[in-house]
Specification:
The protein has a domain at 35-112. With 117 residues, the chain is mainly α. The longest helix has 69 residues, at 2-70. The protein has helices at 2-70, 73-93, 95-112. It is rod-shaped and about 100 Å long.
Length: 117
């Protein structure tokens, strides 16, 4: 009888240890996936910031160039402002397929990525 109790106690201890180890593994996997998502998003943000700076300076250059063609610098800036407003309106109208869906897919793919590199 004591052999059955010893075996049962040993199995219970191993099951408890397995449960704790599984919980710790799940926590570590969640931290790993969260870190991958954050690094991916931060990389995208830095690249986006660089692109925005490029576009700003490009727009200033175009405004100055248009201003030199019209003879009045302020007209170049007004024309470029109109172009930027038009771009912003189009971006707002198509924000779902251009922004929300790709960002959602990026986060979901990073969270569900099961491959070990």
């Amino acid at each position: 009888m004591s052999d059955n109790t010893t075996v049962t106690t040993g199995l219970l201890e191993k099951a408890e240890h397995y449960g704790k180890t599984s919980l710790q593994l799940i926590k570590l996997q969640a931290v790993d996936r969260s870190a991958k998502v954050m690094t991916s998003l931060s990389t995208q943000i830095v690249i986006g910031f660089a692109v925005v700076l490029f576009i700003v300076f490009l727009n200033i250059g175009f405004a100055l160039w248009i201003g030199s063609l019209t003879g009045k610098t302020f007209q170049g800036f007004f024309i470029m402002s109109g172009v930027i407003i038009l771009q912003a309106l189009l971006l707002y109208l198509f924000r779902e397929p251009l922004i929300r869906t790709p960002v959602s897919n990026l986060v979901i793919n990073n969270l569900l990525n099961q491959k070990e590199k």
